Every structure is written in C-alpha cells, then in structure tokens.
Amino acid sequence: MIGIIDYGMGNLRSVEKAFQYIGEDAKIIDDVGMIKEADALVLPGVGAFPDAMEVLDKKGLTNVIKDEVKKGKLFLGICLGMQLLFERGYEVKEVKGLGFLKGEIREIETDLKIPHIGWNSLLIKRDTPLLRGLKDGDNVYFVHSYCLVNGDEGDICAVAEYGVEIPAVVCKGNIFSCQFHPEKSGDIGLQILRNFADML
Predict the structure, then answer these.
(1) How many CA atoms lie within 13 A of 47 on its CB side?
(2) 183 an active-site residue?
(3) What's the first-to-final CA gap in the chain, in angstroms?
(4) Cα gap 132→154, rounded to integer Å
(5) Is 144 an active-site residue?
(6) Total of domains in the chain
(7) Is 17 helix (H, G, I), strand (E, B) or coil?
(8) CATH number at residue 21
(9) Catalytic pick among 16, 68, 147, 181
(10) Is residue 171 annotated as part of the catalytic site, yes or no?
C-alpha cells in the first residue's frame, strides 16, 4: 500500500485518485501506525513551509516519517512536500525542515511573475527511475513561489527554466521528489507516479 500522508495541507484526493487510476493501492493515512505499515510514503502539500512543519510536529508524525525513511522506505515528496525534505525553509520565517536532503527553500529570484504557475518543460540532468520514459521538453504543471537553493548538484535530476533554473526533480537513495504536481500533469505525471510505484 502506498500511504499518502494527510497533514491537512495537500490536494490529497487528487493524488490518491491518480494512483488509483493507474491501478495502485493508495490510501490517505494520518497516524503513526499506518505510516509504519505502508510500503511507500507520499508527502503531498499545498501551503506554507512553517505551517506544514508545525502540523507534522503537532500530529506526532515528524519522527515516524524520519524513522521510516532512514530505514529505507520509498518516499515521494510533491510540491510543498518536496520542500519539507530539505534542511530549512525561509518562507515567512526560518524553520527547520525534515533534513533528509541538503539545501534551503527560498523565494524564487526571477524577473518573471511570482508565483510560478502553469505548464513548464523539464530538462533532465541525470538518470533516475522516477523519470523513466520521459524526455527533455516534457511538460509538467507547477504552482509555487519558493524553490530549492544550495542543494547538492548530484541530487538534482531535472530542472525547469523560469528566469532562473529551478530544481524540479531531486532524488537521493530511497527519496524522490517533484517540485511540480504529477497528479495535475496529465500522462507525463501519471508516468512519474507509475515509475514510483514500480520501484516497490
């Protein structure tokens, strides 16, 4: 079972429905026991970094997520859920993230309109099973004002151009993440979710 973590800040149903559409057993979960039982975890998210970390802490989910990921459980962060994987975020105020990956989340520094909303093309930087079957120029759907900076270049698998280079897919070991919304990205997004499920 793929567990979609509910911390009150994600378009959970659309992520769940996308996995179910491709024939995967996916459930929305929100307690420690179910997080431990799940074969893989997905952390979606829409909203602000500090609020998300506060809710995860209050619900007692932060430590169990850390424990399961450290044990090697397959993990996918989506949009805000990706941003929470890094060391700290600077949205509204400085807040510690989950710290799985090196880097900080800061406001996008571009002359273009913020937030970055809509379809944008991917430039693939390195191989990852998450992007199997994708090619440079494939379009995915973004909605965000903040992005990864000072990350480990070796972890960045794909970027998008938006006046600046935005890390769009970041992966390391059993941890995978997308700054965009695969569940809103049509056939390309479904392929990404299928690739994630196939790693189980």
Answers:
(1) 16
(2) yes
(3) 10
(4) 18
(5) no
(6) 1
(7) helix
(8) 3.40.50.880
(9) 181
(10) no
